[in-house]
Design goal:
The chain has 2 domains: 8-213 and 335-397, Crotonobetainyl-coa:carnitine coa-transferase, domain 1 (Rossmann fold, 3-Layer(aba) Sandwich); 241-322, formyl-coa transferase, domain 3, CATH 3.30.1540.10. The protein has 16 helices and 13 strands. It is an alpha/beta fold. The strands form 4 sheets. The protein has a 6-stranded parallel β-sheet, with helices on both faces. Strands 9-10-11 form a 3-stranded antiparallel β-sheet, with helices on one face. The protein has a two-stranded antiparallel sheet with strand order 3-4. Helix content is 37%, strand content 16%. The longest helix has 24 residues, at 173-196.
Length: 402
């Protein structure tokens, strides 16, 4: 039994931030019902190529993007534009513990599916709204997208080479972080409900999350009034802490203290640790423009593997820069079981990436792969609402279902 096996989640979200949160809740055992529009479903179902291939090597039409964030869910197609569809979602919400949604501010009110409407029929409901800019403020009506928020929220000003263009991160990191905060907020609200017996509304904004996650870089600015600059792979507060070239590629050197730096110098055959310009991290940060070129001239003399073997032997943090092929071939990644293969009705099985959560008493479980559009409609309506086949047929006649 998963930690959340007693929890029912009604997921009205789509794309990434909301589905990322509901997938985590599903991994932890929650019964997650994903409401999708008939005909098309979640936008990411068509965000390809690439698509999942069947056993004959042919595309199934199921986009890899959708597969990345929708396991452990059941798909129900409901036409929200129909009054009977709206009524059906309200019935499901009355049985739910959690609702997740990422519609524009006020977008669900016209359907009677906003927080106030659903709270009135289910006071214990935890209702999480994910938007670009939050429920209030001058930008509240704007649509928010990860790329836009990475720029607006300052992350791109910190990412990229000093003499190059600002860069976004290679995955939709703001969406992912928002999904994680949504999960945390839902779990906190569920814990509070155990004490108060009441649910609550969670107002979560991508911009808020992005600014909050500027972490030390935000504090570097707030304590000095000086905006940090792009440093490429270098660290603003630690030196050496960046990528360096080797004889056959590159490696990451992540020296976290003066003792590690002295060990690195010993392996490199250099006396930099005795040089007052480099003996402390504060001095190294001040003199990075002198030290970094000296290190680069040294690291190119050995291969990446030679450096890693020598530095790991003396506990100096270092590592390669892997391609994804190398990542999933890595023995540690394989030992931890980070690649999954889950059953899939069109392809036989679908690959996936495991949850990083390792709970000793209530571990995550992988009960089913990402669903086909609407594949669980009848089962969910029977399980949650005890509807008969005749009642479900009537809903189809009313065009409430896909």
């Amino acid at each position: 039994m998963g930690a959340l096996s007693h929890i029912k989640v009604l997921d009205l979200s789509r794309v990434l931030a909301g589905p990322w949160a509901s997938q985590i809740l599903g991994d932890l055992g929650a019964d997650v019902v994903k409401i999708e529009r008939p005909g098309g479903g979640d936008d990411t179902r068509s965000w390809g190529p690439p698509y999942l291939l069947d056993e004959a090597g042919q595309p199934t039409g199921e986009a890899a993007y959708f597969l990345s964030t929708n396991r452990n869910k059941r798909s129900v197609t409901v036409d929200m534009s129909q009054p009977s569809g709206q009524a059906l979602i309200r019935q499901l919400a009355a049985q739910a513990d959690v609702v997740l949604e990422n519609f524009k501010v006020g977008g669900l009110k016209q359907y009677g599916l906003d927080y106030d409407s659903l709270h009135a029929i289910n006071p214990r409901l935890v209702y999480c709204s994910i938007t670009g800019f939050g429920q209030t403020g001058p930008y509240a009506e704007r649509a928010g997208y990860d790329f836009l928020i990475q720029g607006l929220g300052g992350l791109m000003s910190l990412t990229g080479e000093p003499d190059g263009d600002p860069q976004k991160v290679g995955v939709a990191l703001t969406d992912i972080m928002t999904g994680l905060y949504a999960t945390i907020g839902v779990l906190a609200a569920l814990a509070d409900r155990e004490r108060t017996g009441k649910g609550q509304h969670i107002d979560l904004a991508l911009l808020d999350v992005q600014v909050a996650c500027l972490a030390n870089q935000a504090m570097n600015y707030l304590t000095t009034g000086q905006a940090p600059k792009r440093l490429g792979n270098a660290h603003p507060n630690i030196v050496p802490y960046q990528a360096f070239p080797t004889a056959d590629g590159d490696m990451i050197l992540a020296v976290g203290n003066d003792g590690q730096f002295a060990k690195f110098c010993e392996v490199a055959g250099k006396d930099w640790a005795q040089d007052e310009r480099f003996s402390t991290n504060r001095a190294r940060v001040t003199n990075r423009q002198v030290l970094v070129p000296l290190i680069r001239q040294t690291t190119v003399m050995k291969t990446t593997a030679e450096w890693i073997a020598a530095l790991e032997a003396v506990a100096v943090p270092c590592g390669p820069i892997n391609t994804l092929e190398q990542v999933f071939a890595d023995p540690q990644v394989q030992h931890r079981g980070l690649r999954l293969d889950l059953p899939h009705p069109l392809a036989g099985h679908a690959p996936g990436v495991a949850s990083p959560l390792r709970l000793s008493a209530s571990p995550v479980s992988y009960r089913n792969g990402p669903p086909l559009l609407g594949q669980d409609t009848e089962a969910v309506l029977h399980d949650w609402l005890a509807l008969s086949a005749q009642q479900i047929h009537a809903l189809r006649e009313q065009q409430a279902l896909g």
